[in-house]
């Protein structure tokens, strides 16, 4: 894991609708749009880092506005399919806050960002939570996952540290994208755990039919 001071201040951003990556999780991506193929090419020549961020629904001059918080990831696996696509694995490093978008002559967007609000993503302190603290949440999550037909390897999750487990569950959960964005912006592990519990209560109250955080 890189130290905070080594993280870039200006990053290429991939505005990806209906998708969020959390720190300490890894996701596969199929890159096929030409501008993002260019982005990956440039990234592979430098630090192999790109930022994933959700676009907002509103648009200005056909360009989507961006949420304030996204997650910086590092390309850990790269495969050129030979047909103009790249298959990559992206490992979440740290969340970032967008300071401003940078004007450039590139086909993709870049932003000036900082990581000051998310120091725990990089400099992980001793975990204060134990799996016993998550027992009720796990029970409710299992019920929700089963209701929605999601399959999770719970035994595998229990072998990970709590940061990885909570982030993986937050990312893989059938929560709405708005709810996942809320979880992404939670300051620390304990806050995210409490927010998951709060969201689960709304789902349980509505018999698993509610998909919006109240």
How is the secondary structure organized here?
Blueprint: E1 10-15, E2 26-31, H1 34-45, E3 49-53, E4 55-60, E5 63-66, E6 69-80, E7 86-102, E8 109-114, H2 135-147, H3 154-157, H4 162-172, H5 177-185, H6 189-205
Describe the protein in words.
By secondary structure, the protein is of the alpha+beta class. The chain has a 5-stranded mixed barrel with strand order 1-3-6-7-8. A two-stranded antiparallel ribbon has the order 4-5. It has 2 domains: 4-121, LON domain-like (Archaeosine Trna-guanine Transglycosylase, Chain: A, domain 4), CATH 2.30.130; 131-205, Methane Monooxygenase Hydroxylase, Chain G, domain 1. The longest helix has 17 residues, at 189-205. Helices cover 31% and strands 29% of the residues. It starts with 9 loop residues before the first strand and ends in a 9-residue tail after the last helix.
Structure in a nutshell:
With about 210 residues, the chain is an alpha+beta fold. The chain is about 30% helix and about 30% strand. It is built from 6 helices and 8 strands; from the N terminus they run ββαββββββααααα.
Identify the notable features of this structure and list them briefly.
single chain; 214 residues; alpha+beta; Archaeosine Trna-guanine Transglycosylase, Chain: A, domain 4; Methane Monooxygenase Hydroxylase, Chain G, domain 1; 2 domains; 5-stranded mixed β-barrel; two-stranded antiparallel sheet; 6 helices; 31% helix; 29% strand; globular; disordered C terminus
